[in-house]
Amino acid sequence: MDPFFPAPSSPLFMDRETAAALRQILVAHCNDADASCAALIEESGTVCALAGDDSLHDHGETAALAAGAYHAVRETARRLGESAFEGLSHEGRHKHFHLGPVDSRFLLLTVFGNDTRLALVRACSTRSAARLRDCLAAQPPPPPPRASPLARHRLNAEEVLGTTDFFRER
Amino acid sequence: MAILNDESREITFKLVYTGTPMAGKTSNLAWIHQRLDNSARSDLITLATMSDRTLFFDFLAVESVLINGYRSRFQLYTVPGQANYNATRQIVLRGADGLVFVADSDPRRAPDNLAAWHALHQHLAANRTHPDSLPIVLQYNKRDLPNALPREVMDQSFRSSAPHLTVCEASATSGTGVFNTLNSLARLVVSRFHSLHARVPASL
Ligand SMILES: Nc1nc2c(ncn2[C@@H]2O[C@H](COP(=O)(O)OP(=O)(O)OP(=O)(O)O)[C@@H](O)[C@H]2O)c(=O)[nH]1
Ligand SMILES: [Mg+2]
User: Is there a contact between B199 and A142 if contact means CB atoms under 8 Å apart?
Assistant: First the structure.
């Protein structure tokens, strides 16, 4: 089975409590790792939680690029016969970043400056990834469709959605 | 795969433009980027070779209507068409909620259309994904070409394997049909999500 093709996969429902808890973990991660910001990114490039400065406050471009780079490097390693993948780092002149695995679906991006050691960021990333994993795993399952407060709108979904223009050209 | 965040009240879907090499996937995104207000979209990110062939992907995030209080966001990606970029294409296809298959109406590209179409179905089959379980819109692009293949001829080659597919005609460089394609796929993807999970209501 090709691990990269979109297999029918389940959506991610993130409730408020989980979102807040993930953010708390990232805040602690930034403090521990002496990082300027950190983000939990889903493999499709969506930022699921964010802490620190506003470096990642764009429309998702940076996260999409980070996810692409991460998967490309991991796949390169796999093709070269290396199955272990601990993440990747970029060292610039002033700003540096580390991308590390959380689980098969999420990655952790940490941005840091010159006063911070990469080794510390790596170590903290491993520890924070475990916390993020636990937090994601502890999330209660989403309510079954009928119990969902939104389910009552179900009736004419096809009808309404069938005529919606999600985007209008200017 | 869709992500619904109760805190930011956002729901995000991933849509991927795949298809025949050089059929106009990047041109679709360029048009969408050009024709949406800055506030409703991200920058257009293109990772291309010197000759403008897509090397890894193009990316554009677009915001759309509120769905019962949830802002809907769509991450649009294109994949490289060239066969030697198979590995990068598969990375980008990962986790897609819906696909646009961009086909080329140039008669000389008919064999390439079919080769790309079959390659897509092989991937689907290898991953036990029934084509009906993943929303796909088929776009016949470059309808402006004077010698464009008649629509019926293109239908014959594609529809034998997928008779119920939504088809949109387009000319991506002049924008014709580009938003129609995007809206068609967005509707399919959101409807499907709704019917499976009923967390996205029909009231818009
Ligand atoms: N006549 C015509 N030309 C088009 C149209 N759409 C795209 N093209 C041209 O086709 C060529 C390829 O367009 P791209 O948008 O780069 O195609 P692509 O599918 O992204 O290509 P790859 O990423 O390399 O597979 C360019 O020269 C475009 O100008 C169209 O609707 N009509
Ligand atoms: Mg392209």
Answer: yes
- In this structure, what CATH number is given to the domain that contains residue A110? 3.30.450.30
Strands (E), chain A: 12-14, 37-42, 47-52, 88-91, 96-101, 106-112
Q: Is B53 in the pocket of ligand 1 (CB under 6 A)?
A: yes
Burial-class residue A83 by CB neighbours within 10 Å (0-12, 13-18, 19+): exposed
Provide the whole-model pTM: 0.90
**Residue in B78, B199, B203, B204 to test binding to A, most A beta-carbons within 10 Å:** B199
Q: Say which residue, B132 or A165, is predicted with more confidence.
A: A165
What is the CATH number assigned to the segment(s) B3-196? Answer: 3.40.50.300
The closest of B5, B1, B62, B52 to B29, measured between CA atoms, is B62
* pLDDT at residue A9, rounded to an integer: 60
**CA-to-CA distance for B122 and A62, rounded, in angstroms?**
32
Which residue has 């809907």 as its token pair? B72
